[in-house]
Q: What sequence folds into this?
């Protein structure tokens, strides 16, 4: 079977080095195996994303030599498609409306996940129709999760297990304003595009079991997962879009694509030492065994 991988950037700013790193490894994995690469803009949050950033992302990927075979429609244009999947869950009795406000959830003394979301205590799970009507406003919709352990064999992190009921709780698939959440959109998009491998930053490892659960409900096969280490700045912080000096605009002014890729390859273990190399040349050196698992502190 030909591997199918994907870039799934959020066009809410210029790519920074951490995005480049995850994208590079995704591309190397697919290309070194003769597979196909798909590009998709994750622009569900239309307030924070823009077509200009999407253009810059494509342009930065091309500059790096990270090409793709097809681009699938951006998430902001797919709500009709997501409606169908949402309704199939609702028809099967797997969803319920939730009226909890953000402040109410924060006041509940529940443990929370690494991505900042809380283990949902099931407050709205068994409301009566009269109780629901009394709120008088649009609800978010949550999917009921079973008491079951999800296990995945991550190519970088090894075995990862999560029980959605105790570690996450019933989770939101559509917000009260009608916008679908990342977990649903990413599952539908990867599934419909035939993605066989998901390579992304370690910060999304905790999302994988929610996506595996939805894959099962929608009848999509599970892709292979690889969650790559996070890049840290010289002072030990995780890089973010706020680190302007490490975004692609700044990097392109002072480095060649080969120098940038060589720096990343040296830091993550794909090369013994940093030296300029093109993405195509690096594909010949690529193997998952060489890749470091720990967070990578980088000075560029
Ligand atoms: N859109 C997400 C991001 O830019 C990535 C989601 C994913 O790879 O599943 O961080």
A:
């Amino acid at each position: 079977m030909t591997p199918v991988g994907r870039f799934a950037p959020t066009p809410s700013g210029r790519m920074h080095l951490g995005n480049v790193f995850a994208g590079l490894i995704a591309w190397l994995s697919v290309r070194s195996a003769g597979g196909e690469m798909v590009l998709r803009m994750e622009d569900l949050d239309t307030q924070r994303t823009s077509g200009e950033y999407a253009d810059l992302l494509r342009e930065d990927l091309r500059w790096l030599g990270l090409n793709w075979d097809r681009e699938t429609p951006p998430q902001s244009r797919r709500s009709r498609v997501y409606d169908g999947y949402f309704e199939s869950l609702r028809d099967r009795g797997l969803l319920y409306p939730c009226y909890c406000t953000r402040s109410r959830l924060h006041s509940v003394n529940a443990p929370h996940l690494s991505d900042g979301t809380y283990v949902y205590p099931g407050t709205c799970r068994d409301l009566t129709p009269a109780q629901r009507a009394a709120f008088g406003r649009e609800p978010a919709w949550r999917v009921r999760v079973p008491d079951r352990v999800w296990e995945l064999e991550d190519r970088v992190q090894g075995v990862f297990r999560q029980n959605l009921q105790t570690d996450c709780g019933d989770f939101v698939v559509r917000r009260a304003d009608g916008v679908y959440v990342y977990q649903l959109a990413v599952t539908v998009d990867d599934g419909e595009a035939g993605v066989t491998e998901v390579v992304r930053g370690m910060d999304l490892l905790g999302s994988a079991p929610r996506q595996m659960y939805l894959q099962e409900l929608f009848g999509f096969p599970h892709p292979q997962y690889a969650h790559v280490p996070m890049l840290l700045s010289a002072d030990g912080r995780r890089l973010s879009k706020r680190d302007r000096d490490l975004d692609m605009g700044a990097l392109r002014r002072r480095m060649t694509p080969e120098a940038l890729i060589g720096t990343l390859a040296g830091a993550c273990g794909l090369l013994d030492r940093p030296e300029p190399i093109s993405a195509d040349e690096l594909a010949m050196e690529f193997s998952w065994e060489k890749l470091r698992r720990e967070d990578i502190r980088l000075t560029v």
The mean pLDDT is 94. The longest strand covers residues 149-154. The chain has eleven helices and twelve strands. The pocket of glutamic acid is lined by residues 8-10, 42, 186, 200, 204 (CB under 6 Å).
